[in-house]
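Q: I have 274 residues here and want to know how they pack in 3D. Can you give me a structure?
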Amino acid sequence: MAKKKRLKIALIGYGAISQMLFDVFKEKKPPIDIVGVLVRPGRARDTQKKVGRKVAVVESLKALLKLKPDIVVEAASQQAVKDWGETILKKGFDLMVIATGAYGDPKLWKKHKAAAEKSGARLRLPSGAIAGLDGLLAMRLGKLEKVKYTSIKPPHAWSGTPAETDFDLPSIKTPTVIFRGTPADAGRLYPKNANLAVTVALCGAGLDRTEIELVADPTLPEGCNASKLEVVSDSGELNMYRLGRAMPDNPKTGVLTALTMADDLMKIVRASDW
């Protein structure tokens, strides 16, 4: 019997999401190998101690791609997508992007799609910490009349964002809309909080026809954030509400974000389509 092929992935970034991917794969033991991690200059030694000797820790994209991964997984920032995404795709490597807010720039989205099509690489967008995208993808085959995404987080999760200037976050006592606008503006102004706004737009009605609200809600259960997806189409209506745990060390990101990335990678293995 032929030995089953293992999926080789390389990570960009070693933050909370990457660390959880290591933990999930260690526990579930899928046929997936994390062969390398790209970190900022000066962080390689500390990261190497954490991931062990079997994983290469590098400080340049060139060194990461030399490892010949099947998929490069961006788990760092919108800036990483902008700086390295096109190069990765042009060289024929599949790319999974979590910081999809970068694609609030239509030119960048088109450029990356064109690079993938030309090289034969796949540009993969995980669903992130939101339910209902499968329904949205199906409903867009008909006529979409309304798509609205609402991200709901405790006030302190919006610290370090424009909301901190516009609102007295510690004094908020009731659910408060801190942003209402387009996915592109949400992704640009809230790059660590609102990537899913752009994901929803790209999966549905587009950047110009998707409504986005960001809410500071002190009434959420401790350690949690939430989201709502509302879709109206000629085929029916979809209303999804999700309440989930936030990362212990990063209240801006939900645990489900990392778990959906892990699940998407494990689905690739099960489908044997890489």
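Q: Anything worth noting?
A: The chain has a mean pLDDT of 94. The longest strand covers residues 236-247.
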